[in-house]
Amino acid sequence: MIYITGIDHLLQYNGPVPPELLEEFKGYLAAKIKDLNITLIAEEFNEEFLYDVFGATEGTAETAAAESGISHLYCDPDAAEREALGIPYYADVMDLVKERHGIREKFIMNIELRRKAEQETSLEVKSSGLCGSTSGSIS
Predict the structure, then answer these.
(1) pLDDT above 70 for 139
(2) Mean of the pLDDT values across residues 76-88?
(3) In a domain, 4, yes or no
(4) Could you tell me which residues are beta bridge partners of residue 73?
(5) Range 124-129, long-range pairs (CB < 8 A, 24+ positions)
(6) Predicted TM-score (pTM) of this structure
């Protein structure tokens, strides 16, 4: 059986969230591990983000798994794996869309233009996951 728990990403590591909320979430996970006889937690996160990007020292689900005596896996590819697999970051695709349309601003102040750029970026990411695969006009 597969169970999916959706959470705010801030609960995935010891960061800006109050420690008592992290403890509450770890307790929730521990209870579900026991009640549902869970043997593995697979998490949409990776160690690169945990330690290098967010500067955390602990992953909440990883700790709950270890304390419960079960396995834990990070399932999100890190930067090197994404590059090897040809999976761009959303921001990189947005930069290419902006470049393609001659948009130089880091933040697009024109709401309509920003919405069109975001829409084209989303379509490009969804259509193939590869940069430069679709084109459109956002002017």
Answers:
(1) no
(2) 90
(3) no
(4) 42
(5) 124/93, 124/97, 125/88, 125/90, 125/93, 129/86, 129/87, 129/88
(6) 0.70
